Amino acid sequence: MRCPFCGHAESQVKDSRPSDDGVSIRRRRLCPECGGRFTTFERVQLRELTILKRSGRRTPFDREKLVRSISIAIRKRPVEPERVERLVNGITRQLESMGETELPSAAVGELVMKALKALDDVAYVRYASVYRDFRETKDFADFLGKEGLDGEGLDGEDER
């Protein structure tokens, strides 16, 4: 594993243990060149997934891109990082278990929206506004009415 600090090609594993969620191995590493310490996670990947974009372009599935888009949606919301990690793991497992190696980006977007709706209403609406390309306030109002979200709980207050 390449050192993220100095770029040295080798690192030593100092400690390995299952992650808290049990779906990955957490490894503490040490760079023999610069002495830097860092953590890596090793996950099982059932199959290589390719995402078919609306434009027709094909790109490899990028778990980190999924994490980034969800992180943007939940920014400044009372959601623990562990819940986000479980959400991303669940979406990834669902995608891998669909039986297809090539999936439309719409399938990923719909899974993310469904998961965010169960996690946090505000994050759900934020993600939907980008995913569904809202252009004006009427788009928000139509979406909220159609989804059964009448605006309650969308003022930043946690109803739970």
| Helix/strand class | alpha+beta
Number of strands: 6
Stretches where pLDDT is under 50 for at least 5 consecutive residues are: 150-160
Largest beta sheet: strand ordering:
1-2-3
Portion of residues in helices? 40-55%
SSE pattern: EEEEEHHEHHH
Choose one word for the global shape: elongated
Can you count the helices?
Answer: 5
Percent strand equals: 15-25%
How many domain units? 2
N/C terminus separation? 43 Å
As a whole number of angstroms, the C-alpha radius of gyration is 19 Å
Kindly report the average pLDDT value: 84
Describe the largest sheet.
3 strands, antiparallel
In words, what does this structure look like?
The protein is α+β, with helices and mostly antiparallel strands and 160 residues long. It folds into 2 domains: 1-44; 48-145, no CATH class. 40% of the residues lie in helices and 19% in strands. The protein contains 5 helices and 6 strands. The strands form 2 sheets. A 3-stranded antiparallel sheet has the order 1-2-3, with no helix packed on it. Strand 1 and strand 2 form a beta hairpin. The relative contact order is 0.11. Mean pLDDT is 84; it is low at 150-160.
Describe the SSE topology:
Layout: E1 12-18, E2 24-30, E3 37-43, E4 50-52, E5 58-60, H1 63-74, H2 81-96, E6 102-104, H3 105-119, H4 121-131, H5 137-146
Quickly describe the structure:
By secondary structure, the protein is α+β, with helices and mostly antiparallel strands.
Features:
single chain; about 160 residues; alpha+beta; 3-stranded antiparallel sheet; 3-stranded mixed sheet
